[in-house]
Write a structure and sequence with these properties.
6-stranded mixed β-sheet; Molybdopterin molybdenumtransferase; transferase; magnesium
Amino acid sequence: MMANDLTSVDDALQHILDRAPAITRTEAVALTDSLGRILAENQYVPADVPPADNSAVDGYAVCLADVAAGRPMSVSARIPAGVAPGTLAPGTAARIFTGSEIPEGADAVVMQERVERTDDMILIQA
């Protein structure tokens, strides 16, 4: 097959959609009976879950603009899960754990495996 004989992604998607059966009827069922079924319309929750941005890993919350190759950063805070984080001091990192709320001023979390720590200083590995 020549490269120009390949089907484009848009054409392949249209091919699939043209053959997908249309939903012609819906029914309301209890949540406990919904396994294996397809939603007929979007569902929304009345509140954010979780209520704030939180860390998916153990590591260090940082502001990316403050991170520079080879420059150590001071660890200014320790934020366990369930504790209000406060604000990240400029130019520093905060020790953060899985499920911990990300502090104001941080826009990234560096996994602990990518960090070298000595006392209260860290060096982010490239």
